[in-house]
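Form P-L/3: holo structure prediction, ligand 4'-deoxy-4'-aminopyridoxal-5'-phosphate.
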Amino acid sequence: MTVRLDDLPLRDDLRGRKPYGAPQAPLPVALNVNENTHPVPEEVADDILDAIALALREVNRYPDREFTGLREAFAGYLGHGLTRDQIWAANGSNEVLQHILQAFAGPGRTAFGFSPTYSMYPLLTRGTGAEWREGEREADFSVSAVSAAEQVGEARPDVVFLCSPNNPTGTPMTLDVIEAVYDATDGIVIVDEAYHEFAPHDVPSALTLLPGRERLVVSRTMSKAFAFAGARVGYLAADPAFIDALRLVRLPYHLSALTQAAATAALGHADTMLAMVDDIVVQRDRISATLEALGYEPYESWSNFVLFGGVDEPARVWERLYERGVLIRDIGIPHHLRVSAGTEEETTAFLDALASIDSAS
Ligand code: PMP
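OUTPUT (holo model):
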């Protein structure tokens, strides 16, 4: 007899829940999970390999539990006068966010975000036994400082997620919203800047708001701008006391010696690693312009992807693209689809495939 999930003594609050499940299909043009589709440049790859080879010689020992060198490298990359005692890192920013929730959410507590937003926030929240609360955005997916503060003040969550720019909509968030939300709550305010490097260069980071705000935390990832999704490295900046809270919940030695070596070596080449960002932004803007010309309704994006409306049958368009070897994302917003900006060739393949589909039939 086949055992079903329901037959197991699973936690009641996890029954009926669905796991994260973006399709991983081996299609020639995969633009569905906002990866950087450019490979790591050759000269950086060589350096990373050397660093991993060196670390491998001591892999019989546990790694530096405090990943001191890596934290120093992140502080250097982020600037803003940050020092390593204000930095944390883990296996992807998903794990970074999980650490925050383990320390500040959990049973009897709540976390809050403005819907639609990154689909892992509710999953991570519920994973710690906390409850997920949803706020609202305007029709164009923006949220004003006044409305954000009002909603957070009313919901009184223990943790607030502000995704800046927002996934899956690409929507910009300005610093006044973050300041207003911080002032409206006694809880933790997480600004998820996973896509910050794709925003206009003169847009200030929420890192500028950290001084004097010990409940504010800014998370980042190497998965997007750094083309390092497979290495699984995310990080954050916050008050040193906040970092102490995360030490209470992390697993000992959670960042492997090989991960630490690879990430530190990659950060030593930040300029080269980030060189593709401007190209990706050019492709993103080309996607928006072409979508508009095709009669779709793309939203303003400060990230490496574009959400577009005006799709009569998203499931059907998604399937037609799939048949043409192009994988994008149906994120469940009626009449909308999302596509990540790829290389120039991948982007052309997507736009040509889409143009060949009659979305109305
Ligand atoms: N935050 C946002 C807004 C994201 O879109 C993603 C990945 N799609 C993550 C965090 C997690 O990224 P990672 O775990 O690869 O760092």
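COMMENT: Residues 42-269 form a domain with the Aspartate Aminotransferase; domain 2 fold (CATH 3.40.640.10).
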